[in-house]
Design a protein that fits this description.
The longest helix has 30 residues, at about 130-160. The two termini are about 35 Å apart. Helix 2 (about 15-30) runs parallel beside helix 4 (about 65-80). This protein has helices at about 5-10, 15-30, 35-55, 65-80, 90-110, 115-120, 130-160, 165-170, 175-190, 205-210. The protein has one domain (about 5-200). With about 210 residues, it is mainly alpha-helical.
């Protein structure tokens, strides 16, 4: 396992850029148009469409760009429905809070999400749960991801509640790719301290094991 492999599994920087641009465009358009909601939504959605078309032209995997396009569509729909510009960022706040909660719960029940995602991909299956050191590594790495999403929520919520639309768009830049890359690097450092658990075959648990 190396950092490049981890980056490929957990999502690349281009996908984060594609996901973050529409939010910044919305904030900029909202400021430049004198806080006009409709044109700001149009500019944001338009930027998402452009990024998707660029992905097609470059013959890259469009999965992340398509997900970003769907995401900006949801954000635009929420803002248009409520008539509140700040609600353009509400889906992002909810998503980050949900991810943070999911990672925390997974650690508490001893099924850390990073182990669930990465274990099968790295040839460990779920055998890492029987290795205390590897379980601790996945738990700590998952806590790093919970902290990333928690930090985003901690920054976004006060800005959302006070209606600071431009600030919500601006903070999305450092809270996006830079924070993701830092989280990825720390995750790599945590996981490389223990060796993956190699399994030759999956055996059904015996009655003694269950007891």
């Amino acid at each position: 396992m190396n950092q490049e492999g981890l980056l490929e599994v957990l999502g690349g920087p281009r996908g984060l850029i594609d996901a973050g641009v529409p939010g910044a465009v919305f904030a900029l358009a909202y400021t430049l148009t004198g806080q006009e909601l409709a044109p700001s939504i149009a500019w944001a959605v338009g930027s998402g469409v452009v990024l998707f078309l660029i992905s097609l032209a470059e013959r890259r995997s469009v999965q992340q760009s398509l997900a970003g396009l769907v995401g900006v569509g949801v954000m635009a729909a929420v803002a248009a429905w409520t008539g509140q510009a700040r609600d353009f960022y509400l889906p992002s706040v909810i998503k980050n809070a949900a991810y943070c909660a999911a990672y925390v719960v997974s650690i508490l029940v001893r099924w850390p999400l990073l182990g669930v995602f990465l274990g099968p991909l790295f040839g460990e299956g779920f055998g890492w749960r029987k290795d205390p050191a590897r379980l601790r590594s996945y738990s700590l790495a998952s806590a790093v991801w919970a902290a990333m999403f928690g930090l985003r929520v901690a920054v976004q919520v006060p800005l959302y509640l006070t209606g600071q639309v431009a600030a919500l768009g601006v903070v999305g830049i450092p809270l996006g790719l830079p924070l993701f890359m830092l989280t990825l690097w720390v995750t790599y450092l945590v996981l490389r301290r223990t060796q993956p658990v190699r399994q030759t075959a999956e055996e059904p648990p015996s009655v003694a094991d269950e007891g």
